[in-house]
Amino acid sequence: MGTQTDVRVIRSADRGHWWNEWLDSRQSFPATGNFDLAANAHGLLMVHNEDTIQAGEGFDTHQHRDMEIITWVLEGTVVHQDSAGNSGLIYPGLAQRMSAGTGIRHSEKNASNHLQGERVRVVQMWISPDTTGTAPSYEEREVDAGPFVTIASGMAAHRNSSAIRIGNKHAALHVARLDPGQSITIPDAPFGHVFVANGSALFEGYGQVSQGDTVRLTSTGGHRITAAERSEILLWEMHAST
Asked: Could you read off the pLDDT of 32-90 as tens digits, one per residue?
């Protein structure tokens, strides 16, 4: 028996929420303190956090293993440093991929200090790799402007695109930057995850979705999303599960 078709809209207020003095984290899946991420995954996507980090703050050095980590900044600038010698600034329009492999240590902090006072809003997404135990690797790339652009992919269909490469041949991450009235169509896939990063839009058959809302799709696609205002939407297309 095949997987049942399903579309589930999850409002921003209903997503997981974790916060402290400097971090406000909205989570599509329970991430903070969760040591069995696969148990709550949707398709291949284990973590999808929208983190707001106050000025002068951030994540101190910590370790990851056997995970593909994609970072997409919405506001502000993130300072990245890792144990493989990679360092630099990640800002809106620059996609970052870190493949943890056999193990990598890194830190991520708001580049703005307390006096400058600029917050960072960043989306961090984790998917499982096809192969574990590989050497850690890193890539970053400017993402072309356009109404529908592939940010990161391991799929053969995007091999010749400008997307950063991820170590899973069954997944791709797209961004839609839409003016009012512009539309995109969600690809058909066994699993999909839509996140409204900015703005609001009409999701065909399910009404309006606004900043912070997510939509989980199972065994379906073809729905149109039409921007009600200038909007940015992140879309995972996944053809396998963990």
From this structure: 777 788 889 999 999 999 999 999 999 999 999 999 999 999 999 999 999 999 999 99
Nearest to 81 by CA among 101, 112, 106, 111: 106
Whole-number CA gyration radius for the chain: 17
In this predicted structure, the answer to whether residue 2 has a pLDDT above a threshold of 90 is: no
What lies within 8 Å, CB to CB, of 9 at 6+ separation is 203, 206, 207, 209, 213, 214, 215
How many CA atoms within 13 Å lie on the side-chain side of 181?
0
Q: Which domains does the chain have, with CATH numbers?
A: 6-238 (2.60.120.10)
Q: Which residue from 63, 79, 60 is spatially nearest to 71, judged by alpha carbons? A: 79
